[in-house]
Amino acid sequence: MQTGTTPGAMLKAMREKPPLVQCITNYVAMNIAANVLLASGASPAMVHAAEEAGEFAGIASALTINIGTLSTQWIDGMQAAAKAATSAGKPWVLDPVAHYATAFRRNAVADLLALRPTIIRGNASEIIALAGGESRGQGVDSRDPVEQAEGSARWLAERQRAVVAVTGAVDFVTDGEKAVRIEGGSALMPQVTALGCSLTCLVGAFAATAPEDTFGATVAALATFAIAGEEAALGAAGPGSFSWRFLDALAALDPETLDARARISAA
């Protein structure tokens, strides 16, 4: 891993000084995303109204934008927040949920990409389509393997000058030059709604902690999720018990364990 610090060191720093993360996310994800940030040691704020989103972005340590449940009013808030975060030098993360599904979503994402997100996180189908390729995605579900999206992710990272994370069975992160894969997690994770959306918010929390190393921060967030997912799966009987065990695993995860168990390899 080619960064100046370790995932465990970033987790420790985040808990010592919890960042305020503005999460503009979808209705389905709000509760679990807020709980994921709290369990990890960050402070969530679900602020999306156009009347205050821009002002709040200047206060927050980082911004995350998820287009899961779009409306014109939400788009206004997203754009105001993204512009304010960029102006204030705060990192912001874009989660282009099913952006290929409708013209409304495609146009919204194109406008947000023009505002230069610091980090883009999506599943393989979303990243392939975002790079102009043909994906097999259906709604929010990815029908493409992560490895098939790696070339698209590299191209997108170079074009956008952003860190791009493709999440799935084995995650892939690149800034267009260096790249890594992160192993771990559980097959139960895709069966719990909004865990991916919550991961986007956690990426924002780590980016707020290490804004000078957004590549390393993204890797650290994904490694944290992977190890917590492995731990939660040990005693889970299914997606229901996995869900609460996952929050407990995030809260119990210590920096030393994260560094010892994280499986990060150069790609």
TrEMBL record:
<comment type="function">
    <text>Catalyzes the phosphorylation of the hydroxyl group of 4-methyl-5-beta-hydroxyethylthiazole (THZ).</text>
</comment>
<dbReference type="Pfam" id="PF02110">
    <property type="entry name" value="HK"/>
</dbReference>
<keyword id="KW-0479">Metal-binding</keyword>
<keyword id="KW-0784">Thiamine biosynthesis</keyword>
<protein>
    <recommendedName>
        <fullName>Hydroxyethylthiazole kinase</fullName>
        <ecNumber>2.7.1.50</ecNumber>
    </recommendedName>
</protein>
<keyword id="KW-0067">ATP-binding</keyword>
<dbReference type="GO" id="GO:0004417">
    <property type="term" value="F:hydroxyethylthiazole kinase activity"/>
</dbReference>
<keyword id="KW-0808">Transferase</keyword>
<keyword id="KW-0460">Magnesium</keyword>
<feature type="binding site">
    <location>
        <position position="46"/>
    </location>
    <ligand>
        <name>substrate</name>
    </ligand>
</feature>
<dbReference type="InterPro" id="IPR000417">
    <property type="entry name" value="Hyethyz_kinase"/>
</dbReference>
<feature type="binding site">
    <location>
        <position position="121"/>
    </location>
    <ligand>
        <name>ATP</name>
    </ligand>
</feature>
<comment type="pathway">
    <text>Cofactor biosynthesis; thiamine diphosphate biosynthesis; 4-methyl-5-(2-phosphoethyl)-thiazole from 5-(2-hydroxyethyl)-4-methylthiazole: step 1/1.</text>
</comment>
<dbReference type="InterPro" id="IPR029056">
    <property type="entry name" value="Ribokinase-like"/>
</dbReference>
<comment type="similarity">
    <text>Belongs to the Thz kinase family.</text>
</comment>
<feature type="binding site">
    <location>
        <position position="167"/>
    </location>
    <ligand>
        <name>ATP</name>
    </ligand>
</feature>
<keyword id="KW-0418">Kinase</keyword>
<keyword id="KW-0547">Nucleotide-binding</keyword>
<feature type="binding site">
    <location>
        <position position="194"/>
    </location>
    <ligand>
        <name>substrate</name>
    </ligand>
</feature>
<keyword id="KW-0614">Plasmid</keyword>
